[in-house]
Design brief:
The chain is mostly beta strands. The protein contains 2 helices and 10 strands; from the N terminus they run H-E-H-E-E-E-E-E-E-E-E-E.
Length: 232
């Protein structure tokens, strides 16, 4: 299944590059800034490390909500289709303490959980009203390769109830799906501004030898972003 998805990504990217060489292709660059909200506790994958951590540490999944930025190269195919290649960046550090333990002096035991995700995506979108209207809604689907890193750094308690300074770090590149929808409003000759919702579904595999409480991390969630598009 993973090989088929990767082949789909390669085919879509190849289509974009081929389209960009045609006479009628309309190209543009899109810059975006937004807010990424990971999936909530009830909808995360089985064996998710953050859900497991909730039974030991004092934090909330919503604490991982945070800002994101990105850019995309769009090639317009005719009046009703766009094909794009994009990259994004999200990083969030969440402070935490143990729920039921303090040190010998009665002070909290602190940790930081950090998640970084850099998606490289290929998408195809439909503009049902065309690209010549004053308001241009669109929706689409795509696939992506998601570069990610997750770490837990701080003070921890071992099996003998001793406190030690430590860190656990795991990273990877995993393939996932993307669905999106939005609206953009053209202004001037080559510019447009808009709002887009983009949902990603992807899971990373953690290295249990690092000391994590579980072996998976759900990287899925919803990005709400403002866009500025410049044609050329």
């Amino acid at each position: 299944m993973g090989k088929q998805v990767c082949l789909g990504v390669a085919s879509l990217v190849g289509g974009v590059l081929l389209s960009a060489t045609t006479v009628h292709a309309q190209q543009s660059v899109v810059l975006n800034a937004g807010y990424f909200a990971p999936r909530g506790e009830a909808t995360r994958v089985v064996n998710d490390v953050l859900v497991e951590n909730l039974s030991v540490f004092a934090f909330d999944i919503k604490d991982f909500n945070g800002g994101s930025v990105g850019g995309e190269w769009i090639v317009g195919i005719g009046d009703y289709f766009d094909v794009g290649i994009g990259v994004g960046f999200y990083q969030r550090t969440v402070p935490s303490v143990y729920l039921d333990f303090v040190d010998r002096d009665g002070f909290e035991i602190f940790q930081d959980f950090r998640l970084r995700v850099v998606p490289l995506t290929a998408t195809i979108s439909v503009l049902p009203l065309g690209r010549e209207t004053a308001i241009q809604p669109y929706f689409g689907v795509g696939v992506g390769v998601f570069n990610w890193q997750y770490s837990e750094v701080g003070d921890f308690i071992d099996d003998n109830s001793d406190i030690f300074r430590g860190q656990a770090v795991s990273d990877g590149n995993d393939v996932g799906g993307v669905v999106l929808g939005g609206v953009r409003i053209p202004f001037a000759d080559r510019y447009s501004a808009g709002v887009e919702l983009r949902y990603q579904s992807v899971t990373g595999q953690l290295d249990l030898n690092q000391g994590f409480f579980n072996d998976r991390i759900d990287l899925g969630g919803l990005t709400t972003q403002f866009t500025v598009q410049v044609g050329f």
